[in-house]
Amino acid sequence: SLAIRKTVREKLLPQLYSHMKDPKTEGMRVPVALVVLKLLMVMPPSVLEVELRGFIMRLVTTLSSRDKAVRLLGRQTLAKVVVELGPTYFGNVVHEMRTSLTKGFQLHVLGYSLHTLLSKLVPTLSPGALDHCAPLIVQMLMSDVFGEAAEKKEVDAIANSMLEAKSTQSFASFELLASVVAFVPNVNLLVPPVHAAVLSAPGGAESLKNVARARELYRRAVIGLCNNSSTDLQPLCVYVQGMLKTHLPKTPPTAKGGTITANNNNSNANAAAATSAASNGKKRGHGVAPVGSVLQPTHEPSVSGSVGVSPLSSELLAFALGLFLSMLRKGRFLTADPTHAGLLEPLLPLLQRALRCDSDAVVSSALRVLSCLLAFPLPSLPANSTALLDRTLALLKRSASVRGVSEIVGISIKVVTALLRKPPKLGGADAASAPVAGPAASPIATASEANRVDGGDDDSDDDMGSADATALLNLAASASARAKPLVGGGARLGETQLRWLLSFVSVHLDDATLQSSLFALLRVVLSRRFVLAELYDLVLVIGDMVLQADSHTVRASCSTLYLSFLLNYPLGPKRLQQHLNFIVTNLGYPVTQGRLSLLQLLHAMLTKLPLELLHEQSDRLLIPLVARLVSEEETACSAAVAAAVKVLLSRTCATSGGGAAASARESVLKLLGVWFGDSTQPALCRAASQLIELLVDALGTDAGVASATLPLVVESCVREADAGPLELQSEQQADAEDGVRSGVQSVVQSGMQAGSQAERWQPAFFCLKALNRMCAQQPSLLRSDACSPLWSRARLLLLHDHAWVRSAFGRCLGQLLATVTPDQLVTSADAVRASGRQVSRSGQKEPKNDVVLAFLGERGALLRLTDAVVQQLHSPVIAEAAADQALKTLLWLVLTMLKQPALAPLDCAADLDAAKKQLGRGKAVRGEKPKPSLASAAARERLVETGVGESPAWFLQVISARLAPLMQSTGFVRGSASIKWYAAVISQLDPPVLEQWMPVLLPPVVLAAEDKSGKVHPAVRDKASEVLTLSRSRVDPMAFAAEYQQVKERQRKAARERKEKASAEAVVNPELAAQKRIAKNLGKRQGKVRKIERMKRSREANGSLGVGKKRRRA
Does the global pTM surpass 0.85? Predict the structure, then answer.
């Protein structure tokens, strides 16, 4: 082994050393250097110690080259070597770098290279790994930051000459070092050297440049220590407390806002401090504010005055507070842990002393820390919160008067809010000692209390500050044994202070940077129920902001404050009426967002106001709300008005409300009767119908609402049915019916200006909606005698000129049919009347003289209803929901007639004539003429041949012929309803019957499923394919194939006939053929124009400017 070691050292290593440097580029060969390192590391430690220095010197030498490529390669090699060596030999590397790079540009290379090595090595280390070389590294960093290298970097010519001189990397290196230094006991390896470096640098602490560099180093140290896993909470609190005690100013007590002391019930340190103070004869007094304090400032640059014991006291205090604040924000301290509360409690008096510093950075940091501490259950906080509040208000006044809105202003508002927030009361024995005023105590302090001095003087504060780390640990250990402390300040506020605070809020309430903090402060003030004239005036301003503020968040906050004031503060009759008049008067506020916020405020107010007050004000609120409901145009605002009316009715007219509620219900019902009685005023009828709908929603049908309002609702609908067709222009009708495409809203938009006369159809529509609500809760109302006039006019309402009325009555008819079974319609109406009472299959007895059974059992009645429903499906403006309801009704009618063929007599076929083309009562209203079905004639012939033409289910052929053209209609609503009908019928018929009716049902499905012309919507075509698959599975495959083949053959035959007709027409009437060709070509050109327009709109919607590369011509 000795021979091998000698051979390696004398022969192998020299040869490898000679190959480490490239002779051409003078750069370092990284693979060779790593091989040498690997070889040295397997050698005995004695050999490694001897050879390592020479190896490192060879690498460091490359850093002194003026060739940046050589330096870069050498730096990369050295970084890899350092990672391989680990932290043990990092001090050797740093020492060699310091001794080799000593002058000129090498100083810049030294700082830059040190940062590179640290950035590669630190992520692989654990805390404490570099403690042995930390002093040397810190010394090198201080030299780079405050020495010759830093001065040269300020020269532009030098900074631009090389990469290493452009910026100082030592700040980042300091952060990396702080992240791996063991906090205990080596944290002082970082902080004091910075202080010493500043004092020894040219200019010392008087140089702003030096102070700024020190401040940046401390900031980087805070970041590094926060990421350091060895920074435990207990040593951290001890360290921060020691820093604050050392560098905080020692000032005598002031006339306002004396110092505070920690809770000394279970603290040996505080007890010893109090004993020491008593033995020394220290007395609390009211001293005059010294020069340099807030009351007698010596200069203007800061918000308070006093000096520390060190030239860098402000920076050191900012460092300690910043470190502590970062730990608080990272969630290292838990509010539910009593041990953490014990660690934090001794910092309260120190924070108050920190608020007296002459540095805005220290004051700002202290306020931020105090804001975080107020979230913890500190036992001494409620007793000392008033002193903290006084000091914070003094800072707020000073800062607001000197600099307006600043960082300190925003933080001070948050601290004041937290200190004013009333803590929860303790239970049991702790309640007697809780510093919370009783229920009868006024929250406004007297003038004498406003000028008090709370807590002790600075001497007691200093004695508490002399407690060592042992006392702090004892306090933390005993905190877990104490009862759960209070959370919150609950400070008392003087009347003068409150008046100034309200004036400050009123001035800055429009400032967007302070609004959230000010709203939080106002919430606390209102919760404490401070009574002051200025507060009442401020609420009026807040009410205006509910309407006028631009931000939704601000309007919501103002609404919450306004409502809290109305609910909690004493208001006389006149003042209360003033606020209610403000809300009612602005129901028609022109800006939609402001009006919506006011309506939401009104809804919340009606929900929470006392019931007695609502009974007194119900008439003054209900009439304006109903009037607004009729004239409102915005959907969201209309829904908000309806919700407010519903809440008002549900509270004032509730069945459990006693005599006052019964009187309110009677008053509302009388009002409805008066409004419905004047048929010449459609607006009043509409208001009454909408009010009935909301009344049913609020009270239900059990409160006697149905019996009182049902005749009024039916009468309004009958009046509209007997009035004849609407006199609307086609454009007005189109605009009125286009709203159906988005579905019937919970509150319908009338489209008219406020105060204009309502449309005639609107009362009937809203009455039908109210009837839907009633019958949804009590379906038996549909079969009552009161609804008898309505069913006798069912066809008129199903074919009403307005789509909304048709849709609403369609839902009523669907609810009615849901209560009837086909078996109940077998007997005639005469049999029903003669039988007296009839028992249904469900076991329920039907009433005598059932008007519904008489209406539906009438000869041909189901056929007439089927015809009306089919006409509804032909309306081009029918909505999807209305189409679905019409389809359900049509399926019920078809299935009922299939089960009971007697209800569809053949002699009433005229009632279901497919040639009917009219939608309306004597006037065609935007109806679409049914197109002749391609398979209808052939299917009829086919049925006659097979003998099915005389089948009791003859109506299937007529309905199929009328629904088949809908599959080629515009859009997918009508086509989807049509194909769904085919699917339902095919699935309900028995296979033998379905096979007989395949000539009728299959051709339309095949044409839609295999459409290639583009006339069938893709969604309808996909559903038709599914229905075709269903048909194939329901009948015999051979029969299906035969019928399918016949359908395809008829298609080919029809195509041949069209071509032959066109050819003959070109010979017989060439002029007509030429006109058709011209029209066809014109249609193509118009289609291209429409396509281009669609592409343009698409580009504009997507933000495209239409600029692109031109296509090269061929």
Answer: no
